TrEMBL record:
Signal peptide: none
PANTHER family (UniProt xref): SSL5025 PROTEIN, SSR2962 PROTEIN
Record organism: Sorangium cellulosum
InterPro entries referenced in this protein's UniProt entry, alphabetically: DUF433 (IPR007367), Homeodomain-like_sf (IPR009057), WH-like_DNA-bd_sf (IPR036388)
Name the UniProt record assigns to this protein: Antitoxin
Region described as Disordered: 1-20
């Protein structure tokens, strides 16, 4: 997985993948989408983000699952 807009810095956000070095974790962006927020609502909440940053964060999560880095949860 190689996305220049997704960065990991051990001393920032506990090493969690973030968007463009901002202190906005990919997991936060993905959770907002999962909660039903639109791209515009997310950008309104985090004005430093761009719509493409959100798409890239979702691609990162999808690729992480594909590569087994984020195993899917067991079904209830």
């Amino acid at each position: 997985m190689n996305s220049p807009s997704i960065t990991v810095h051990p001393g920032q956000m506990g090493g969690a993948p973030s968007t463009r070095g901002l202190r906005i974790p990919v997991a936060t962006v993905a959770a907002m989408v999962a909660d039903g927020l639109t791209l515009d609502e997310i950008v309104e909440a985090y004005p430093d983000l761009e719509r493409e940053d959100i798409r890239e964060a979702l691609r990162h999560v999808a690729e992480s699952v594909r590569e087994g880095e984020l195993p899917p949860r067991d079904a209830p």
